[in-house]
UniProtKB/TrEMBL annotation:
Residues 13-471 form the Aldehyde dehydrogenase domain. The keyword Electron transport does not apply. This is Aldehyde dehydrogenase. It comes from the Bacteria. Gene3D superfamilies: Aldehyde Dehydrogenase, Chain A, domain 1, Aldehyde Dehydrogenase, Chain A, domain 2. GO terms for molecular function: oxidoreductase activity, acting on the aldehyde or oxo group of donors, NAD or NADP as acceptor.
């Protein structure tokens, strides 16, 4: 198993990946880049360990997961410190969206896995199976590969491993090369909680390590960009390995004239800038009805201008953290420059902040339109472009004018109207007078439409995807030969024809 202790060796042989603190620019440590052969060895180990993990059943697995839940809360500060050091995010962003999520998820899957994956006795109307026992069961796929991004090393990389483990699979996690330390710490935590050897392993490395993992496992859960998601699906097609894809987004916020503007402005500032805007379900663009546009823009700009940015030195120290991934800084700046070149105005922010560390100033843009990349491509940074629209229909048309369909929000005091509009937005989740918090309800499916993903996490489907459905049909009492078996006869064939007519031929004619 790759571990933090392996890091110095990796550094010596030159095959390691340096892990940097983006808020300081300092190198924290180095982790190994696993080769395809090393990935194969991890998978072999996982295959050997998985049957026993499956055999101990939900209750025993639940015990390990509940111990892990407690381990997360007991070690919250240590985990937060690790997350903050490798992402540069604030203490609060690590606490609320990562520690709280993981702690809840361990308990949720421990409790719900036996229900979601219980045998389902079925009844059928078909006379051919009358009196037989019909059951659908869910068997673990075997070895699950999870490939994760850098923005939420605990929630979006490790988080998907929890239901996979609860279902009885062995799991190999390939974290982003930028943020591998949280995953390694979780491996240590799970060991301390009694998870058997080989059931959870971390394959540190780069894109090639991820690609090698796809070749070997029975299911790939991928979270990352749409561009890489396509590559993952293509690679998985070679071995017909099923995939779950949680990809990029460009979430629209629609503010109607009757919205509670103070709440909408607070939410716009928070849900576009939390985690430095590096959230797949960040508010990335806003459409505001003309009568309240000026007021809304003034409120949002004041709130964004007041944000404190910098290296987090503990609770309450800063509001907005660093840009975690170096190339992201260029993408954010390119979107802002492109907008300005095409006539947009920067009301606050608008440039990278002075070092050390990688920071982009919290930015509000106005006079924007859909010729600008800031309105059409995922920016994934602390920027908020706001556009004036004539009415709700124009806002809806623009919201749906996107290849993405991850999440959206509608803001109005008329919640019936808001919900009606929400149902017309092309996105996997739409909030009315809220944003992002739906993600914390693990009962709710979370997944993108269009190029934002395939399949969902959370809810029943969020664990059943890690299983193979098996149909069982058991015939207890039966004669030596059923009437439809050989040899065929004119009489039985005629009877089957009559039966078919009797059962299905009585539909009304138009
Ligand atoms: P990337 O797509 O760049 O990378 C994701 C993971 O895939 C990383 O571990 C990466 O490794 C790995 N990888 C890269 N190339 C390959 C390959 N050819 N085969 C297999 N694996 C590969 O995404 P980011 O890390 O930049 O994350 C940001 C993106 O994630 C944003 O688009 C964001 O919207 C999305 N996201 C979506 C979420 C959702 O739930 N829908 C949640 C969170 C983020 P390495 O880092 O080593 O290159």
């Amino acid at each position: 198993m790759a571990s933090v202790e392996q890091a110095p060796a990796a550094e010596q042989n030159g095959t390691g990946i340096p892990v940097e603190n983006p808020a300081t620019g300092q190198t924290i440590t180095t982790v190994p880049t696993l080769s395809a052969d090393e990935v194969k060895a991890l998978v072999a180990r996982a295959r050997a360990a998985q049957p026993a993990w499956d055999a101990i059943g939900f209750e025993e697995r639940g015990r390990v997961l509940r111990r892990a839940q407690k381990w997360v809360t007991d070690n919250a500060d240590r985990i937060i410190e690790t997350i903050v050091s490798e992402t540069g995010k604030t203490y609060e962003d690590a606490q609320l969206a990562e520690i709280m999520y993981a702690a809840a998820a361990f308990g949720f899957w421990a409790k719900e896995a036996p229900k979601f994956l219980a045998d389902e006795p079925m009844k059928s109307a078909n006379p051919l199976v009358k009196g037989k026992r019909l059951v659908v069961r869910y068997a673990p796929v075997g070895v699950v590969g999870v490939i994760g991004p850098w923005n939420f090393p605990l929630t979006n990389s490790f988080g998907d491993c929890i239901p996979a483990l609860a279902a009885g699979n062995a799991v190999i996690l390939k974290p982003s090369e930028v943020t591998p330390l949280t995953s390694l710490l979780m491996a240590e935590g799970l060991r301390a909680c009694g998870l058997p050897d080989g059931v959870f392993q971390v394959a540190t490395g780069d894109g090639a390590t991820g690609a090698a993992l796809i070749d070997e496992v029975d299911f790939i859960m991928f979270t990352g960009s749409t561009k890489t998601g396509r590559k993952v699906m293509e690679r998985a097609a070679r071995t017909l390995t099923p995939v779950g894809l949680e990809l990029g987004g460009k979430d629209p916020m629609i503010v109607l004239a009757d919205a509670d503007l103070e709440r909408a402005a607070n939410a716009a500032a928070y849900y576009s800038m939390n985690n430095g805007g590096q959230v797949c379900i960040s508010i990335e663009r806003v459409y505001v009805e003309a009568p309240v546009y000026d007021q809304f823009v003034a409120k949002v700009t004041d709130k964004v201008r007041a944000l404190r940015q910098g290296r987090s030195s503990g609770p309450g120290s800063v509001d907005v953290g660093a840009v975690t991934f170096p190339p992201q800084l260029d993408i954010i700046d390119a979107h802002v420059r492109d907008a300005v070149d095409k006539g947009a105005r920067v009301l606050t922010g608008g440039r990278a902040a002075a070092g050390p560390g990688m920071f982009y100033e919290p930015t509000v843009l106005v006079d924007v339109d859909h010729t600008m990349s800031c309105m059409t491509e995922e920016t994934f940074g602390p920027t908020l472009p706001i556009m004036k629209v004539g009415d709700a229909e124009e806002a809806l048309r623009l919201a749906n004018d996107s290849p993405y369909g991850l999440q959206a929000s509608v803001w109005t005091k008329d919640t019936r109207r808001g919900e009606a509009l929400a149902r017309r937005v092309e996105a996997g989740a739409v909030c009315v007078n809220d944003a992002q918090v739906n993600y914390t309800a693990l009962e709710l499916p979370m997944g993108g439409w269009k190029t934002s993903g395939l399949g969902t996490r959370h809810g029943a489907a969020g664990i059943r995807k890690y299983t193979k459905q098996q149909t069982l049909l058991v015939t207890r009492l039966a004669g030596k030969r059923d009437p439809h078996m050989f040899p065929y006869s004119r009489r039985v064939t005629g009877l089957i024809g009559k039966l078919t007519k009797l059962l299905y031929g009585r539909g009304k004619r138009d």
